[in-house]
Amino acid sequence: DLLDSERWWSRWFAQLAQDGYQLRERYDPNWVPKFWPVPDWLPTRVGYSPLRGDWTNGVYTKFVGIMDAVRTVDGLRVVIKRVPIRDGKCHEAEIMNIIHERDVDKDARNHCVPLLDRRDYTGSTYSLLVMPHLLPLDVIPFETVGEITDFVRQVLEGVSFLHSLNVAHRDIGSNNVMMFSPDLFPSGTCHLYPGDVLGRLPLPAKHLSRRQVYVRYFLIDFGLSWAFSSYEARRPMRTGRGQYKDAPEFSGSRPYDSFALDVWCIGKLFKEEILDKYRTPIFLSEFIATLMQPDPLDRPTAANALATF
């Protein structure tokens, strides 16, 4: 059975299909599941799916506001994000549109996930944002210093570019940096369980290393982001807290510089995903320490950090 949180998607199954986005059969209001008998020899601890047909129809959606789908015109796997509309506006969509509009030169430094489509339906208080399906940052481990430095450079490049547009992300973290690498898993990987094979048994999929294939890192989730009209219009703010609630800016009650906060969060991201997991050169730990200076005035800007890295 569908979870209560999934029934909203079932309501819009037909409309999305009409607009070119196919959800899993699980969300078809007319779908009736059928099951194979579970083999007696299979240990109960193994996550085998006895569902007939596409076994992924037995998997519920982990996040209420995120749905996997296929764009029927070309078979592209996408994600659809449900974002609330407040006062007739969808804040996250507006931020993504601002980024697109200000990026007039299609700058290669732009690492913001592209907004492929937006759907607004009569009777719904949500806007649906369609974006490409991406892989988790840690779907495979880093293997070389070169892979790590490429990751660091791309993130710095993306945030520096975002700041050049006078947009602060305000929620940078391990959950909001993802990767696009279509050739990383030569035989494919399960979109619901990235890193596993496309099958009924949870087995690891064979993969190449990051240095062997094209890898591009993207910033996602602009729900807490803020766009200023110009550099001169930037001002301290105090609204919302992202993933890293231990940032020095949150220790008091005064408004803070959102751009300096982004830099600290970049440092925390690098610490969690690199320093805490791998043996790395001294220069990298020293560099990350500069990003996480307690006093925002002692931190470099994202552009300066990129230039000195």
UniProtKB/TrEMBL annotation:
Q: Which terms under GO biological process does the entry name?
A: mitotic DNA damage checkpoint signaling
Q: Which domain of life is it from?
A: Eukaryota
Alphabetical list of PROSITE patterns matching this protein: PROTEIN_KINASE_DOM (PS50011)
Q: Which organism is it from?
A: Exidia glandulosa HHB12029
PANTHER family of this UniProt entry?
A: OVARIAN-SPECIFIC SERINE/THREONINE-PROTEIN KINASE LOK-RELATED, SERINE_THREONINE-PROTEIN KINASE CHK2
The alphabetical list of record keywords is: Kinase, Transferase
Q: Does the keyword Transferase apply?
A: yes
Q: Which InterPro entries match?
A: Kinase-like_dom_sf, Prot_kinase_dom
The terms under GO molecular function for this entry are:
ATP binding; protein serine/threonine kinase activity
Cellular component aspect of the GO annotation: nucleus
Can you say what this protein is called?
Kinase-like protein
Annotated ranges, domain Protein kinase: 1-309
Asked if the Swiss-Prot or TrEMBL record annotates the protein with the keyword Ion transport, the reply is: no
